[in-house]
Amino acid sequence: MKSIWILLCCLPVFAKTSFPDSLLIGNVKVFIHPSAKSILDAEQKRLGGNKRFVEGMKEKMRFYFPVMEPLLESAGIPNEFKYLSVQESGLNPVAVSSSQAVGYWQFKATTAIDVGMKVNANVDERKHIIEATKGAANYFTRNNRVLNNWIGTLLSYRLGLGAAKKTAYVMEWAGKSDIQVDSSTDWYVLRFLAYQKFWADEFKKDDSLGIKPINQAELICYGNSCGKNLYQIADELNVSYDDLKKYNPWILNDYVPDDKNYILYHPSNATFFDNSLIIPEIMPEEDFLLPPKKKLKNPQKE
Fold first, then answer.
1. Which residues touch 134 (CB under 8 Å, ≥6 apart)?
2. Rounded to the nearest 10 degrees, how much is the dihedral formed by the CA atoms of 169, 170, 174, 180?
């Protein structure tokens, strides 16, 4: 009898938590080991600690998600991935990390260019909600072709594809529709699961109580901007130049370049804007690959 008690005392004790036993992310059912639940609950408690913050973030999500959702859907990316942009930047277009990742989806400049965005002296599409989401869709698509699991692909967003391929459990997840996470799983994945569950529950709660936002702005788009000065566009549309600049921080000067048809956006009080969206063009696999470095005769000079 004594030996049984000793054995029981040696077993891990997991506090009872409110986090569910599993979540569905795209086509992947993620089972939550009890050892991870306290971590997930702590993340959710941190998110819900400030009611003003929660309501402010929900307002941002209602503003941006209707633009992001059809772009992700048309690319075949799980709808739940929209919450990763919240985790990455708090939907702040001018957010800059300590590693110089920028914008809604926190891309470094070289990676942003690699997945189809323009980053130069005139524009920085990492700060453009549509172009940055297209870039993220391209990144996810590229990596999921290799990893064949959306949670592994999600982790590759932090680690990079090379490091993700060297992570044993990521490769074990490849091709599987059922996986398990525990306390040893990378914090980035656990934080995402907490964010996804918390914010999705917040919107479900509002829907169940019939809570609707008052005067919620909608993001609307304007595409007739090629080569125009922002002052000219502001006069043409009878909107404030300051507002136009505020909602389009991706324009780094006072004019829109003429190298392509850029989309400006503005809150819905400017009802003459075009509300159409351009679906993302998913790049062929060969277009994701940077050209190989030229071999040097003396590698030490590289």
1. 71, 75, 116, 117, 280, 281
2. 60
Q: What are the residues whose beta carbons fall under 8 Å from the beta carbon of 275, sequence distance 6 or more? A: 220, 221
All domains of the chain, ordered by start, with CATH?
Answer: 19-204 (1.10.530.10), 215-276 (3.10.350)
**CA gap 131, 206 in Å, rounded:** 30
Cα angle 282-157-107, degrees, rounded to a multiple of 5: 75
Residue 139 Cα distances to 65, 143, 159, 192, 255, angstroms: 19, 6, 13, 17, 29
CA neighbor of 280 nearest in space, from 92, 113, 78, 115: 115
Best CA proximity match to 90, nearest among 119, 53, 131: 53
CA–CA dist 251, 57 (Å, integer): 24
In this structure, are residues 155 and 179 in contact, taking their beta carbons and an 8 Å threshold?
Answer: no
Mean pLDDT of 125-145: 95
User: Mean per-residue pLDDT for 39-48?
Assistant: 95
The model's pLDDT over 160-176, given as tens digits with 9 standing for 90+, comes to 999 999 999 999 999 99
**Share in percent of the chain as helix, strand, coil (round to 5):** 50, 10, 40
